[in-house]
Design a protein that fits this description.
Elements (H helix, E strand, L loop, with lengths): L16 H25 L9 H21 L7 H20 L24 H22 L15 H7 L2 H28 L9 H39 L5 H31 L1
Length: 281
């Protein structure tokens, strides 16, 4: 089979600009983590933190508290992942807000144009939603062991196809919510610019010259900053809830196994009693 006829391998200049925005956001987060790691090596617990490290410590403590409150003490170390994902999402919205020129594709069609919000391409929200999806089911198998697979045949085995379909509902929910809000904000901002025209005549109108500088910043603040914060909060909260719902302590797991054994013994005993009554009749 010739995959060249099925899959088109994109050159660097053909890569969608949303992927460049995503890579840029990831690079910024990577640099921040390296800087924080270096500072942690020189950090003295007896000294009062200052400047950037003081702000980071406050944010980290707050995120850790939210993780413990929503997920429980067993997931305390999970705060690093939540902090990284939250930072990545808000950075993506900020990059779309700032409009950094696309200087990375000199021979591309979008060269010199502002880099868009990465989440306006459905592949980006899908990728981070997939990470949450995998972590959710990984933790389910980790804590519930073989009991994890019982969910797909409940309440009776005939529901297996339905349960397999609903398994993907959380993935679709996280993906479409983030993608839909980012795309809606992009469309509204575009309508503001197109509807009012440019701010310079003769292409633009007097209305555009007056209202563009007023409405455009308000639109960017709401759809790129405020909405970005909301989407970051919603995505991380749902991530924490989905993953923590799969947790079961070792004690509870042993108790659930014992209860299932007891239920099987009771069912077996009831069947024997029914047979004994029939024989007696």
């Amino acid at each position: 089979m010739d995959f060249g006829k099925v899959i088109k391998w994109l050159s660097w200049d053909e890569i969608p600009p949303e992927f460049l925005s995503s890579i840029l956001a990831l690079l910024i987060m990577l640099i921040l983590t390296i800087v924080i790691r270096i500072k942690l090596r020189k950090y003295d617990a007896l000294e009062k933190p200052k400047g950037f490290f003081n702000a980071f410590e406050a944010i980290n403590d707050w995120v850790e508290k939210q993780v413990i409150d929503l997920m429980g003490p067993a997931f305390k170390d999970f705060s690093g992942y939540i902090l990284f994902v939250g930072g990545y999402i808000i950075l993506g919205f900020i990059i779309g807000w700032i409009g950094i020129p696309n200087i990375f594709q000199p021979h591309g069609d979008t060269f010199g144009e502002p880099l868009p919000n990465p989440f306006t391409n459905i592949a980006i929200p899908l990728s981070i939603a997939l990470i949450t999806f995998v972590l959710t089911h990984y933790n389910a198998i980790k804590y519930k062991h073989w009991s994890y697979f019982e969910r797909y045949i409940e309440p009776i085995p005939i529901f297996l196809p339905v349960n397999l379909v609903t398994m993907w509902s959380s993935l679709l929910s996280l993906t479409l919510r983030l993608f839909g809000n980012a795309l809606a904000g992009y469309c509204v901002i575009t309508l503001i610019y197109v509807g009012l025209g440019t701010s310079l005549p003769p292409e633009g109108s007097l209305v555009g010259m007056v209202f563009d500088p007023i409405l455009a910043p308000i639109g960017h603040l709401y759809f790129d900053l405020f909405d970005g914060l909301i989407q970051m909060a919603v995505f991380t909260i749902l991530t924490m809830i989905n993953i923590s719902n799969e947790y079961i302590s070792p004690e509870e797991y042993k108790l659930s196994i014992e209860n299932k054994k007891h239920e099987k013994e009771m069912k077996k005993q009831r069947r024997l009693e029914k047979k004994a009554k029939k024989v007696g009749i």
